[in-house]
Request: fold
Amino acid sequence: MNHSANTAENLFTPPPLAARDLSMTHGRRPVISALNLELPPGKVTAIVGPNGCGKSTLLNGLARVHAPASGAVLLDGKNIHSLPSREVARQLALLPQDNSAPEGLTVADLIRFGRQPHQGFLRRWTEQDQAILEQAILSADLAGLADRPLDTLSGGQRQRAWIAMSIAQQTPLLLLDEPTSALDLGHQIEVFELIRDLARQGKTVAMVVHDLVSASRYADHLIAMVDGQIIAQGAPSEILEPALIHQLYGVHCEIYRDPADGTPVLVNLRKCL
Amino acid sequence: MNDHAVANPLASSALVPPLTVAVFFVVAAVFASLLWGAGPIGPADALKALIGQGSEEARFVIMELRLPRTAIAVVTGLALAVAGALLQALTRNPLAEPGLLGVSGGSAFAVTLAVMLGASSATLTTVVAQVGALAGCSLVMLATRSRGLATDPVRLVLAGATVTGLLLSLTSVLMLADQRAADEIRFWITGSIAGTPFSHLKAVLPSLAVAGVLVVMVAAPLAAMSLGERAALGLGHKPGRIRLLVLVAVALLVGGATALAGPLVFAGLVVPFIARAIGGPDIRKTLWLCLPIGPTLLLVADTLARIIGAPAELPLGVITALLGAPVLLYIVRSGRMPTL
Amino acid sequence: MFQLVVRHRNLAAQLGLVVALTLAAVASLIFGTVAVPLDSLMDALAGQGNAIHRFVIHELRLPRVIAGALAGAAFALAGCLMQTVARNRLATPGIIGIDNAATAFAVASVVGTGISVAPPAMALLGAAVATALAFGLAGANGTRGYRFIIAGLGIGAIAGAITQVMLSRVAIDSANAAFPWTVGSLNARSTTAVITLAFGLVIGWVTALLLGRSLNTLQFSDPVAINLGTRLTRVRALSLACAVLLTGLAVAVAGPVGMVALLAPELARTLCRAGKVPLTASALAGAVFMVTADMAGRLVLAPLELPVGLITAIVGAPYLIWILVKPTSRSLT
Reply:
């Protein structure tokens, strides 16, 4: 592990993360079958699809939380399950949906955990760790909140604290599972903009997003899933068509462009008859 | 009637076959309990005694010892089974069991305290047991009302088990401190109906009758509560009042059973479990099926307690624990935890 | 800057607990049916002075205090590990059946069922069997979630019933000999068991410390812990093995003493800073708790001696009830 390549200023080239013929099951029920995927480096990828289409399962599979039934997830060309877990943790950070923290844990405590994959058996907290911790607090706009217990923060602040932990983990790859669920509109935008800033610094980001409009606004690359299969992928403005929406959610709609930035906006949504 | 008619799930005809079988089992268990015992009176002698023949001794053993004991087992089994079914429906938790949730424990502790303070009449013991049961029940329900517990069956059971252990420890202290009281309840506290006098049964019956009326009152609303409290509210029930009535009924039943047989674990778990397996999740069906199955289980357990260690007797509580724990493990083992 | 505060707070907590343990131990040596004044105590410890005092201290109280401190530390450390692994503060070895199974096995060798294995070994075997069974029955879920705990509960109930059966089937003398095994008492400790426990405690404590950083990540959900590079299966297996070792050996010394495993880690968590699993502080708190409770058991109803297990159970009551009725029950997770 090259530590000098790991400082915040450095524009790292992320190792490619890919799925090859990936199949995953939930108990015995197949959720994802023979899926192939490669995350575009340095870009924000959003995974969308109806409930139960396997998007969270896919994300957890990519983050080696669940083992595949067959096929493999390749990190830099190597099977992710054959790599030491700690080494993967220096390459890839996951922000899961269920992220409860112990009572009384402060923001700084939480972010400090992000340095754990970088600490050796004897190597404890260093000056560099401290600098990265402080940098992460600044990037996530948490200055002044560092010593506050997480349970006293608002939902948006808490989510930024978790993202700050991933920032402190200093991984070139960042996976997020519905990072804005349960946040109000203002907090959603806060979090999405933070994520976009991280991608601009060179990280490869993949996130599961529920809301199609936010997904197309903040993602460079969209992956649409139905029944454990990718049915379309590409730049949001190119692939978002009424036909795709119909395939995904079974509704009719028309697509307009946001006059400000050209983002697709869905209007006149209605149920199919 | 057209083709879309939905069968009435409570149609009485659906319950007749399983109930008939269950009643047959009760009768068989009653006979087993009368015919087999730890003493020298064998089944043949016992049969003769039942129809008024046989030796004086055999008639005494059957009529004065085994018959009352059998009656007590029937009532205890009934009370615990119904109480278990009610608690499980109320907490929507298949593991909620009076023995595990501190209800029996509270009852046992209260009785020990009363005996230590000099109480001896059966009526008083019953009342004390029921008050103790109510206290145990209330503790559990307070816990259930607090946010996390209502939705998490395990925390509830874990908390209940800890409270039970605690109450039994306190009971042990009382027994250590007062040798006389300890001698009086030593066998009862492990769960046993061997020494229960018939007069206790008479003292318990009125309160069980009250509990029966309460059960009839709450059965239908409780079925609605299985959809969740808000849904029950939407259907026009008053969840607060139903909960209170159920608690009082459970306290009367478990307190009565504990006064008769000591704290028995798992009887209230096994019986409703079997009843649900036969009749499905509706609490009204479960209650009907509990009526014959509860006594059957207790009779079988009590008969086993007499036979296994003959000529000595095993505590009944040990037998119910040995019968019940595997069912607990089975529920745990069987895939997803079913919610009620 | 941040981590200096952490170190100081946790270090201060541990030092405070060491002081408390010393005080509790000295008090235990002084008070009792024969009071030994402090200066006589010093003489007696140095092997001088009054013969009666020397006897009381060396033969009766000192071994008992040592046994209590070791057993308390072992129970508490096991509890802390178990709670962390199961992510549930109520998931202590006592509650999930390990104590009971260890007791059942130990009683089997005490009451003469023809098993001639030493009680500590039997207790250890019982603890291991119970944990393995709980694991097996919990299936693929492992220690996560409810199955493990409920399975343990059932196993505990069966073990308790079997202990009762054994005790009701043997002659009254053997049953009396086995009684301390069923309630938890420091009365029946054997020197071999205490020495075995001392070794076990050192092994368990060192292993726990080595696992410390991984254990810290178990305070989060599984995906977060995996994300931080923790090898869940290995950490869980090792922690459980430690908990089994500690509980089995402690039961062999003191019987099933409940609540220490629940309360001591709780106290340690309150004293220490959030975010770290307080392993050493738990062990120290357990030792303090056990020594104090045993002293209370000897003094409260003197000359009648209450078993330490009953004292800990009663002291635990208010705390547990508080957990149960607290409107927000976050502390259970």
Q: What stands out?
A: Chain B has one domain: 15-333. Confidence is low (pLDDT under 50) at residues 1-5 of chain B. Chains B and A do not touch (no CB pair under 8 Å). Residues 24 and 292 of chain B are 9 Å apart (CA to CA).
